[in-house]
Amino acid sequence: MKILVVGAGGIGGYFGARLLRAERDVTFLVRPRRAAELAKTGLVVKSKLGDIALPAPPTVSAEKLKGPYDLVLLSCKAFDLEGAMTSFAPVIGPGTAILPLLNGIGHLDMLGRRFGKDIVLGGQVAISLTLDPEGRIQHLNDGLSLSFGELAGSRTPRIEAIAAEFAAAGIQAGRSETILQDMWEKWVFIASAAGITCLMRASIGDIVAGGGAPLAVTLLDEISAIATLNGFLPRPASAQRARAMLTAAGSPFTASMLRDVEGNRAVEADHVLGELLKRGKDGRYPVLTAAYAHLKAYEARRARIAI
Fold this sequence. Notes:
Layout: E1 2-6, H1 10-21, E2 25-29, H2 32-41, E3 43-46, E4 52-54, E5 59-60, E6 71-74, H3 81-88, E7 97-100, H4 106-115, E8 121-126, E9 129-131, E10 137-139, E11 145-150, H5 157-168, E12 173-175, H6 179-200, H7 204-209, H8 213-229, H9 236-246, H10 256-262, H11 269-278, H12 286-306
Parallel strand pairs: 1-2, 1-6, 2-5, 3-10, 6-7, 11-12
Antiparallel strand pairs: 3-4, 8-11, 9-10
Helix pairs in contact: 6-8, 6-9, 6-12, 8-9, 11-12
């Protein structure tokens, strides 16, 4: 299977590195700056699941890209999706599958409009990754959870073929017949975690210590209500797990969006929180609204200072 990994940041670099180490046919579509980093230091992953060091990973720039590819593994930030689609459009053939590992749900509509709904799969991953100043990928937690599937829930030959590629690389990837439900449940959690840790500018443990656990629960309930309005009531196990994580005393957990705020980087405010408010069907969601406004104020200040 010929695989194009769009970007070699945290998620793309991590999964691409593991596939490449297993001698899968992988090429990274990267921008010039990342290509220069990889040429200098190689693709390096530091993980409790096993370190990887690939001195010369195959890379290609958008203007030199040729296809088609069998699988496009897409893991860019949601605000970069439009540009990413333009960059890899030339390699999309009739047999190509696009597997996006982005936050939220809105990207499925964008990809479907551009390339056709039948080409797009659903996917979700739970893993904590970051790049250090030298561009090395740091795996911050102890494990990962990856699932993917056809949006209609069917088991197809291409799903089995992709699963075989992941299995060859030692990546435990679940083939899901309920991938939209899985994606919504992940969205509920990450939006709640991002919303409360950014709003309070603190870890979950510090929020709990400061008396903010009820606020975190209220935010989770608001977002769960939006999921339910859209036909995706969180299943009991997912709901219980999210509530426990958002109210855990002493927890050092912070959302990656808070780390982006603290690093003065762009955030997915519109895609993770704003999109939920759009899908809320005119309901009242005061904590979610406050968290979203907080992030939009951050974006406005960041833009003003940059001018």
